[in-house]
Design brief:
The structure holds two protein chains of two kinds.
Chain A lengths: L7 E11 L2 E12 L3 E6 L5 H8 L7 E6 L2 E2 L5 H7 E4 L11 H6 L14 H13 L15 H14 L4 E4 L8 H16 L3 E5 L3 H7 L2 E6 L2 E6 L1 H4 L2 H8 L3 E5 L9 E5 L3
Parallel strand pairs in A: 3-8, 3-9, 6-7, 7-8
Antiparallel strand pairs in A: 1-2, 1-4, 4-5, 9-10, 11-12
Chain B lengths: L1 H22 L7 H10 L6 H34 L12 H14 L4 H27 L5 H25 L5 H10 L7 H20 L1 H7 L3 H6 L4 H23 L5 H13 L3 H25 L7 H20 L5
Classes of the chains: A alpha/beta, B mainly alpha.
Chain lengths: ~270, ~325
């Protein structure tokens, strides 16, 4: 659906913040299509600020952010939306749209100002619902869906936007255990469609399950930018979250092993 | 297509209301006579064409335009502010228009000047509200700041209006101001009608055209922007159009409350939340509602009842009923 062609979303030496005051300094970050980059950090570490900058809502205080070699802060909302889609945390809406219509709103950037979506847009929206296994809920009211289902529908909406990069704000955080795993699986699938993914999470395990790379925001800096197995050591986790965590290799489930976390509670 | 049949149904209801309304009045005309006059252009009763063209038709068209316009701008505002409790005067257009009209009446201006000053007052109030929110928000364009500025400006113009009423001559000017504020279609002639129609068309047509994008705005500022919507421009279009429509209607009809709040609710109840369908349905239901109200206003008793009174008396219980019905489903 989306052909990446090695396009990059890139921050170079960027200071992020509001009103000319940076709260996160000297960020160097790049996401290629097909990557999954997990962003970890405490609440208030600046994850939201980083996302808002990546989406062009705010300009970097200094440094640059570019997509496909173009300065992101010079692009119109419509042009940005053509490159980067956004999945906010799940929520309820003031008006009760059908799931099908919610996904259709992902087509906004592709439509003229006076236009309404046509047959092609509708079929793309349905395709995206099918990719996320949500097609059977197309005619249900969005607000009546469960948290996990809403999250999938909003991801389908981002997919319908046909952008090369997708930014997800804690996509699995308010879900039950099964749905967390389902969402992570779908995110891996999307990366397989050469979409570049940047997601925030509070669970290091999510990074082990999904990420090709992790980055940790802490003390106003972006650090530990690299493969999850090398970056998320017990020492790093202790320094970020302030608790002792053991990291193991899981038994081989046929698809290889991966790291798992076990916090020390005793 | 469910939407198309719903629209057709609304059009038929409105057409039926039109024929009934044209027949009702001091000189009753049967629906059959009206239909045959509409088709042939003539009638066995020589008075019928005179009454229709000279008196009832302009008023009927004005009622349709005013009701439809208030309803459609209410629906657009509810989408813009993401709140089903918002009405078209949230940014102060009504109190500004009321102040302008009262000032003109106080200065014994002719009717045309009252209209112009009322229109100018309505537009100015909204401009002040927008300017205040820009100044306070400092580029951080939040809807909340805008609404609060609207409330402040509204109450400021309300106070100024009270002051004008306080100093107005209680035997002559004060009743005129009070009556104007309660709203009426009694003074509508062809000249006023032209003004209203131009205003309504100039505002309602762009609103209809951007109606699908209005849906996207209801996700909130940042999310709408991430979907590729130019939110600032979209908001400007909606505010300019809705304000122009509302100020235009108020300037010739006086202040007519409730329609812009109640009708979009009812419409959302029957048409669903998609603005693509919601806006035209709101227009049609608003038109039918206003036509019914105005017919009652001019024919229930031997003197005109102000429209504002009827819309509130009929609207309040109906609104409560709709709220009860719809609170079962989420908005």
């Amino acid at each position: 659906m989306v052909n990446g062609d090695g396009i990059m979303l890139q921050m170079k030496g960027a200071g992020l913040g509001y009103n000319g005051r940076a709260i996160v300094h000297d960020v160097d970050l790049e996401i290629r299509s097909g990557d999954i980059l997990c962003l970890l950090g405490q609440n208030g570490a600046g994850k939201t600020t980083l996302f808002r900058t990546m989406l062009g809502f705010i300009r970097p205080v200094y440094g640059t952010i570019s997509v496909d070699g173009r300065d992101l802060s010079r692009l119109s909302p419509r042009e940005v939306a053509g490159f980067v889609s956004y999945v906010p945390q799940s929520y309820a809406m003031p008006f009760s749209y059908k799931a099908r219509d919610v996904v259709l709103f992902g087509r906004t950037a592709h439509l003229g100002i006076f236009a309404a979506p046509g047959r092609k847009d509708r079929s793309i929206a349905m395709e995206c619902l099918e990719i996320l296994d949500m097609a059977h809920l197309a005619d249900r009211s969005f607000n009546e869906l469960s948290g996990g289902e809403r999250q999938m529908v909003v991801i389908a909406r981002a997919l319908a936007q046909e952008a090369r990069f997708m930014i997800l704000d804690e996509p699995a955080s308010n879900l039950d255990y099964g749905n967390q795993v389902r969402v992570i699986r779908k995110i891996r699938e999307l990366a397989g469609r050469s979409i570049g993914i940047l997601m925030a999470t509070h669970h290091p395990d999510h990074a082990f399950m999904a990420a090709s790379r992790v980055a940790v925001l802490s003390n106003g800096r972006l650090c530990h930018n690299g493969p999850p197995g090398e970056m998320l050591t017990p020492q790093t986790l202790k320094s970020v979250y302030g608790v002792d965590v053991q990291v193991f290799d899981s038994p081989d489930d046929g698809g290889g092993t991966r790291k798992v976390c076990a916090p020390v509670v005793g | 297509m469910k939407g198309a049949s719903l629209l057709l149904f609304c059009v038929c209801v409105l057409a039926g209301f039109c024929i009934l309304s044209l027949g009702i009045g001091r000189y009753p005309v049967s629906p059959g006579t009206i239909v045959s006059w509409m088709i042939t252009g003539g009638s066995a009763d020589g008075n019928v064409p005179l009454i229709m063209v000279g008196i009832r038709l302009p008023r009927l068209i004005a009622a349709i335009a005013a009701g439809g316009a208030l309803a459609i701008s209410g629906a657009a505002y509810q989408g813009l502010f993401r709140n089903p409790m918002v009405s078209p005067d949230i940014l102060g257009v009504s109190s500004g228009a009321g102040f302008g009209a009262a000032l003109a009446i106080l200065l014994s201006m002719p009717a045309a000047v009252v209209q112009v000053m009322s229109f100018t007052g309505g537009i100015s109030a909204v401009l002040v509200a927008v300017a205040v929110s820009k100044a306070i928000g400092r580029g951080n364009d939040s809807v909340l700041v805008l609404v609060l500025s609207g409330i402040v400006v509204s109450s400021l113009f309300g106070a100024l209006l009270s002051m004008l009423k306080y100093v107005a001559d209680p035997l002559d000017k004060l009743p005129a101001i009070t009556y104007w504020l309660m709203g009426s279609l009694a003074d509508i002639r062809m000249r006023e009608l032209r003004t209203v129609l131009v205003m309504v068309a100039a505002g309602a047509v762009p609103l209809m055209l951007v109606s699908w994008r209005l849906n996207v705005l209801s996700f909130g500022e940042e999310e709408a922007r991430s979907l590729g919507l130019h939110t600032g421009m979209m908001r400007a279009v909606v505010i300019v159009c809705a304000t122009m429509v509302t100020a235009g209607v108020i300037s010739v009809c006086g202040i007519i409350g409730w329609v812009g709040l109640v009708v979009p609710h009812i419409s959302r109840f029957v048409a669903g939340p998609n603005h693509r369908l919601l806006l035209p349905v709101s227009f049609l239901i608003g038109a039918a509602f206003m036509l019914a109200v105005d017919t009652v206003a001019r024919s229930a008793v031997s003197v005109e009842i102000p429209i504002g009174i009827i819309t509130a008396v009929a609207g309040a219980p109906f609104f409560i009923w709709v709220m009860k019905k719809s609170s079962i489903r989420s908005w």
